[in-house]
Amino acid sequence: MSSREMRARKTSARGATSTTAARGALRWALCLLAAIASFLPAETRSISFHDAVSIALERNVALARAENAASLDRNAAAGARMRFLPDLGLGLSASKSFERFFDESSGRTTSETSRSFRAGLSSSVVLFDGFANVSNWKAARLEEEAGLLDFERTRQTVVFEVISGYLTLIEAEEQVRVQEENLAAQEKQEEFIRRLVEAGERPISDLYQQEASTAAGRFSLVEARNAFELGRIDLVRTLQLDPFGDYRFEIPPLPDDLAVDPGPGHAERIERAFARRPDVQGMEARARAAVHEERIAAAGRWPTLSLSADYGSRASNASDVDVSDQLDHNRSGSIGVSLSVPLFDRFDTRRAIERARIERENADLALSDLRQEAALEVRRAHLDRDSARERLEAAEARLRAAERALEFIEQRYAAGAATLYEVIAGRADRTAAASASVRALYTLLWQERFLDYSTGDLDPAGPLAP
Question: Which terminus of the chain is more exposed, N or C, with fewer CB under 10 A?
């Protein structure tokens, strides 16, 4: 080997070594970046109210099942409609026969084997079956309509669950704000009392009492923040989101003026619920379908008239004629009408009619029960909405009075004319009044949306609050 070749081989080996080292360094760098990324906080996903509604409608399991049920009803209705058309079938048959006979001319027993083939088209259609096919089609159409209405009601239910989760979350956030304001006021009061104690104007017991009140305020804030986080978790569960993800739910602007028009009375709303609620309309459709199911059962007493036709040809190798000629010469067809009259079916039709009658009565009972439940739900929602409005007015009046009372007591305490106990009691009453006002506000908003839901007026594309 020449010296030039040896130098070339050494240069090639050094290049390969450097390439391997570079690849190893790149792998280590990638692993290091992945390790660093694993410790970085996950990106927070921002979700608006309308995004939440879209996510819930896309992922909700109950809604997916309702959609599948509606698809099955649509498929059944299409099948019932196609039963009016004649069927068409292609029949192919092949056979091989063996025959053994005695040949008198030769005095020997002879065996022969022959193969035959037959092909043909056949069709039949029911001309009359006691109108069972007509009733079956009408019942299937009503079941399809009921399935679509059930799907729509499930959509409303999913949207109402999202609305409830959002209002609960907003209320919890407002309660956190109330407790934060209370804690800030308690800490400010504590600092004020500390200066008075240091100046000898107040006993040390006042500072201890205020420190206890401040600690209670911190405890209430922790509880409020925990309720807010639990509200977020409940909303994540409602939307079927990834539990490992981090989400920020955007709060849409709420109306400043809640002087909502009371609208019609409960009697008119009940009539509106009967006319608009998808579940009530769906049950009415199922009650009408049960009537047709009873007619289907009664059709078993009627005769059945059918029309049938077939056309085909056959060929066999036992003939000396070519197979194609046999198929041409042996063509045949037939058309016929058949009438089947039931004389005795072991009382199957009677029992089927009785079962259908019971099912129809059950459907009527279910409709009556649902209408009663819907009417009471609307009436209760109407009453609760009116009560919620009155509670909100009372809560706001109580909050205004508590704020004025607290301001007066704090002035008297600064002047030495009131005790710290009065200040603590007044601040606790003001905090309770603020919390009750927030609760009354969002209870009213929830009752407004529940009243829309109970009457069937809830629009899945509508706003969070009316």
Answer: N
